[in-house]
Amino acid sequence: MDCAKTGKLILQLRKEKGMTQRQLADKLCISNKTVSKWECGLGCPDITLWNGLSEVLGADILKILQGELKPNRVDVGKIDKVRFYVCPVCGNILMSTGDASISCCGRKLHPLKADLCSKGHEINVIETDMDLFITIKHDMEKDHYISFSAYVHDDRALINRLYPEQPAEIRLPVMKRGGYLYLYCIRHGLIKYPINL
Known about the structure:
197 residues, alpha+beta, 5 helices, 3-stranded antiparallel β-sheet
């Protein structure tokens, strides 16, 4: 760990939060001289302070340790290249509209890769006046089911959570023509379907 880089980042993050050295020190129950020492690169925080420091400064512990925050490319508003993540521990569903560092339950998550219309996961789409009724040819048992669906089109995404032992079907409002439907099978992964109506 480079104490000078880490200290410079702590200084930057503290100023972004509009905090004085004393305010940061008070939140961590340490002296403001300790914070000053870090920011001058004359020492690094003790391991027992990292969680609190991360919480107070609103930054990832690893990024503080590395001493740099690399910004992502600016999100241009189109989410048709959305990325989905599923935590292997708790099952949380997360998404990003660009490059992101995503973690859950202490584990770094990687974006799911979508297969196109896999066999055994066929869908049937019926358009009514108000919505799309989509049925999925798929078992919905505790060890093999569709966990979520996401309808993505240009500037919007609609996510539906599905559960075992319920019908494998969803209703979506008709938003715009086109887009993609994503389904996440807990056994086979993410599947992508073009919606061409």
